[in-house]
Amino acid sequence: MFSEESSKAEFFEAARNQAQRDFEADETNAQPLVRWGGALLELAHYKQGQESIDMIMQAIEKLQQALRLDPERPDGEWCLGNAFTSLGFLCPDKKKALEQFQLAAESFKRCLTKEPTNDTYKKALEMCDKAPEYYDEIQAHLKAQSLSGGDPGKAGGASATGESVWWDVGGWVLLGAVIVGAMVIARNGAPNPTA
Q1: List of residues 6+ apart from 20 with CB closer than 8 A
Q2: Average pLDDT over residues 17-37
Q3: Helix/strand/coil (H, E, C) string of the chain?
Q4: Would you place residue 64 in the very low, low, confident or very high pLDDT band (cuts 50, 70, 90)?
Q5: d(CA 7, CA 12)
Q6: What does the radius of gyration of the chain's CA atoms come to, in whole angstroms?
Q7: For range 118-127, the mean pLDDT
Q8: Which residue of 26, 102, 154, 156 sits 20 to 30 Å from the alpha carbon of 146, by its own alpha carbon?
Q9: Which of 127, 84, 118 is nearest to 103 (CA)?
Q10: Residue 158 CB contacts under 8 Å (≥ 6 apart), including other chains
Q11: 152 contact partners, CB below 8 Å, separation of at least 6
């Protein structure tokens, strides 16, 4: 499992590096910035704590820069929405988390305005609407876990609802990773990790 995770992290690091080189070669092209931001967002999942938050913030910067260059990119808006959602789940303050979820919803709505029949964008907005509910359940689970010293069994184990929340959120993140990865590969081919 470790080598598989390591390979994924290496893939996204190579994608980030390639996107950076592509943008530096043509700073008027928003597409490398979207790939760069998407790769940073994926890499943030391999980090913890403040390091993960910082990487998500970098992704948001790149995606917003891309959208300033080309505001008609629904893929940039979609990645931006995912970044705001990820940041929201990492906020310990519910008010700040809800602000991030609201920013995510606005991004997903802009995606749907640009491509109203896109099922991925519809599902993203639907999941974003459920984010506050997931947030409460995740925070409750994290609190119970911290009270038990990190052992969910000491706090009575995870409830079926808590487990389903983890599966829902995990599925959402996995879906996002697969779609961003597929978009990167489809648009530019697989990055060369040795480049």
Answers
A1: 32, 36
A2: 97
A3: CHHHHHHHHHHHHHHHHHHHHHHHHCCCCHHHHHHHHHHHHHHHCCCCHHHHHHHHHHHHHHHHHHHHHCCCCHHHHHHHHHHHHHHHHHCCCHHHHHHHHHHHHHHHHHHHHHCCCCHHHHHHHHHHHHHHHHHHHHHHHHHHHHHCCCCHHHHCCCCHHHHHHHHHHHHHHHHHHHHHHHHHHHHHCCCCCCC
A4: very high
A5: 9
A6: 17
A7: 95
A8: 102
A9: 84
A10: 141, 152, 166
A11: 141, 144, 145, 158
Residue with tokens 């092209």: 29
| Tokens read off for 150 | 């990190």
Per-residue pLDDT band for 20 (boundaries 50, 70, 90) equals very high
Confidence of residue 4 (pLDDT cuts 50, 70, 90): confident
State both tokens at 33: 């910035």
Q: Which residue has the tokens 């009270």?
A: 147
| Residue appearing with tokens 């704590």 | 49
pLDDT for the residue 49: 85
